[in-house]
Amino acid sequence: MSNDTVLYAAQNGVATVTLNRPDQRNAINPDVCDAMRDAFDKVEADPNVHAAVLTGAGTLFCAGMDLKAFAQGAGDTILFGQYGFGGFVKRARRKPVIAAVEGAAIAGGFEIMLACDMAVAGASAQFALPEVRIGLIPGAGGAVRLPLSIPRVRANEILLTGAAFGAEDAATWGVINRAVPDGTTLMTAQQIAADIATNAPLAVRETLRIANQAQTANTDTIWPENDKSILQIGQTTDAAEGARAFIEKRKPVWQGK
Prior knowledge:
With 257 residues, this protein is an alpha/beta fold. It has helices spanning 30-45, 67-80, 108-115, 142-149, 152-161, 167-173, 185-197, 201-216, 222-234, 237-248; strands at 6-11, 14-19, 51-56, 97-101, 104-106, 118-122, 126-128, 165-166, 178-180.
């Protein structure tokens, strides 16, 4: 493991990967990207691991990109390093990953969840893609994956308003598999992973490969356009203003450029 910003443990065929910056709301910086790549390298390489759970330390799953790191010029490293945002969202994986969300999955944190194969959330969990509110786009997979997962009109409402919604709606709309009592999400996700781990490993991997191929058949051509838009929008005056306003806890003043 590169550093302690991500923790790794494996037992009985299930790996648990934990985002470990609770004091920074598990926000994604370059160190987290490196550690996530290392963690899922271990998941993929270990013949005794058949499924993984991804969770967050502390009171929430992940608040997205570390905007302080973004403001300091680390945006390209976080967004466009190997495997994309968080060292995870573009990674081709052979083994299923289940997100266990307590508290909130916001912006890039929500997009990391969407990159997982399944998701379980606590009853009070909150979800949002608020990038448009700070002059950015949900370019770590939100605008790519969400319209493939739920009805287009619902996806557009989430993407274009940036408004938050809860676990009950997320389960009803099919954004997550199920909402469970707070404090039980990790146990529930690990149980699902354990159920998967009892099945034939090669059959699970091939089934997942086919399912993912069906889901992503049209996204391979979308990612380049998505990344081009991130770069263009990220260089605008409004993007810089959005990050500053967020850090300074004030309302942004948009200039449309």
